[in-house]
Write a structure and sequence with these properties.
Order of helices and strands: HHHEEHHHEHHEEHHHHHH
Number of domains: 2
Shape: globular
Largest sheet: 3 strands, antiparallel
Number of helices: 14
Radius of gyration: 19 Å
Distance between the termini: 43 Å
Strand order of the largest sheet: 3-5-4
Amino acid sequence: MLFPVQKVPLPSLYHAVTRRNPHNEFKWDRYAEMIWKWKGTLPARKRVFYGKYFRGRGTFISLKYLPYFLAMRETAVAPQDHGSFYSDGRITENARAIWQALGEHGPLATLELRNVAKMDTKSGNVRFKRAMAELQCMLIVVHFGTEQETAAWASGKFELTCRAFPKETAAARAIDPEAVRRHVAKKFKEFCPDAAPRQAASLFGWTKAEAAAALEVPAEPRIGKAAAR
């Protein structure tokens, strides 16, 4: 994670750099400003994936693990796949428009992307934010640097993950879903050795049975009325 997030038991860049607990002693200083810049520069240099993934919050995924996450979300896509994803009901029309804009124009900063996708009004901005959250949660779009579009803070720049990381996207297409869960769960257990299947299921979007199998622990029994008595 960029910053620690409640109920997301994963390490954060903020803690790694500052060694502070942000829930008790968060402060915006040169360290926080430094890692805020890294979320743009590291993906732009193709060193890591960054987007709003877990709980819709800033998440880094290493290139080693990116193929597994793409396989898990079934989004090892091509730039022109937006039409089939929309017709299958996997994305909204607004997400399709953003995907198409990036596919046709390449990396775009926020204001320019909103303009190309015809979401440059106030209400369009609301639709844009929702659609971008949708695409980042599916790992289809990656944060790809920044661009100074106004006199205020620099705007985020975005690119299609499949074009930013073609090698990892190709690798994802050959990974079996069962292998994905086992591999991701193994890494998760390093951070949370005592994690219950329900925690992994909630975090990764698995069923409890899938999480139990991936963590190699017995599934939690379902308690019925008779058992409860």
